[in-house]
From TrEMBL:
<dbReference type="InterPro" id="IPR020904">
    <property type="entry name" value="Sc_DH/Rdtase_CS"/>
</dbReference>
<dbReference type="InterPro" id="IPR036291">
    <property type="entry name" value="NAD(P)-bd_dom_sf"/>
</dbReference>
<dbReference type="InterPro" id="IPR051687">
    <property type="entry name" value="Peroxisomal_Beta-Oxidation"/>
</dbReference>
<dbReference type="InterPro" id="IPR002347">
    <property type="entry name" value="SDR_fam"/>
</dbReference>
<protein>
    <submittedName>
        <fullName>NAD(P)-dependent dehydrogenase, short-chain alcohol dehydrogenase family</fullName>
    </submittedName>
</protein>
<feature type="domain" description="Ketoreductase">
    <location>
        <begin position="7"/>
        <end position="204"/>
    </location>
</feature>
<dbReference type="InterPro" id="IPR057326">
    <property type="entry name" value="KR_dom"/>
</dbReference>
<dbReference type="Pfam" id="PF00106">
    <property type="entry name" value="adh_short"/>
</dbReference>
<comment type="similarity">
    <text>Belongs to the short-chain dehydrogenases/reductases (SDR) family.</text>
</comment>
């Protein structure tokens, strides 16, 4: 029996790229799929279009699956509730939510505008909350459900010019962990994937210097469908004991990512003054300081 037979999945941002590949893979695994996509530009600006979502739906149906489209925005509470309602209206239930919808408004921090900040937070972080919160009600009632949230190494590790995106994506990790803790007693699981792929979301990466060009060439070898098997597994009953975790998928590699924990401590029974911190605490802790890494620094080897 296919791993998702009898289940209903919502995949946001499923009109292309990673979202489309996850929607297609979940349909092939037996799920009925709500293909959500507003059909806007990478920045979220301009007129929306139902075409990207309809194209994903058509592929699913050509392969013998079932799907419906939805063009509501994740970035609005009532709109997000309509996304979940569309699954119940079409298929009678919802079992899986993949929070994949995203936009980019890259800008160096000291030039970033409040509008650029809010737009990205609204889609990635608020959108993940809105859709998850809407689905939490049927999940709780039926005693089961799986959330798969897309995070990013831009938030987990760091990157230039993406304060808005990085903050949102690290916030998604904390949101996922909170969902996992709060809803475990209802049989609901929540995990994150940091995907690596050449898609619309990465096509804006600069490729001006030889170093940047080399990085882009590596990314182009990592196609979006490489992330789909992990998403299908995490959504399936085979992952019944997997929750609150953060994974990364990079071509043929799967990583379990660390979560913040104490590295080292310094103790002084009489307490600390700023001077004593400078003299004793910082020298004791400094060996464990983390460098100002970017994702490309940590994942520096060629994908295989």
């Amino acid at each position: 029996m296919p791993m998702l037979e009898g289940k209903v999945a919502i995949v946001t941002g499923a009109g292309g790229g990673i979202g489309r590949e996850i929607a297609l893979a979940m349909a092939l695994a037996g799920a009925k799929v709500v293909v959500n996509d507003i059909g806007a530009s990478l920045t979220g600006l301009g007129e929306g279009s139902a075409t990207p979502g309809e194209q994903t739906k058509a592929i699913i149906e050509q392969r013998g699956g079932q799907a419906v489209t939805n063009t509501d925005s994740v970035a609005d509470w009532e709109s997000a509730r309509r996304i979940v309602a569309s699954a119940i209206d079409a298929f009678g239930r919802v079992d899986i939510v993949v929070n994949n919808a995203g936009i980019l408004r890259d800008q160096i921090f000291h030039k970033m505008t409040p509008e650029e900040w809010r737009a990205v937070i609204d889609v990635h972080l608020n959108g993940s909350f809105y859709v998850s919160r809407a689905a939490a009600e049927p999940f709780r009632a039926q005693g089961s459900g799986a959330f798969v949230h897309m995070t990013s190494t831009s938030g987990l590790v760091g990157n230039f010019g993406q304060a808005n995106y990085a903050a949102a994506k690290l916030g998604v990790v904390a949101l996922s962990k909170s969902i996992a803790l709060d809803m475990q007693r209802f049989g609901v699981r929540s995990n994150c994937i940091a995907p690596f792929a050449w898609s619309r979301m990465t096509s804006s990466i600069p490729a001006e210097t030889p170093e940047q060009q080399a990085r882009v060439e590596k990314l182009k070898r990592m196609t979006p469908e490489k992330n789909a098997p992990l998403a299908v597994f995490l959504a399936s009953d085979a992952a019944a004991d997997v929750t609150g975790q953060v994974f990364a998928a990079r071509n043929n590699e799967i990583f379990l990512m660390s979560q913040p924990r104490p590295l080292r401590s310094a103790h002084r029974g009489e307490g600390w003054t700023p001077e004593l911190i400078a003299e004793h605490a910082m020298p004791a802790l400094r060996a464990q300081f983390l460098p100002l890494d970017r994702s490309a620094d940590v994942f520096s080897w060629d994908p295989v």
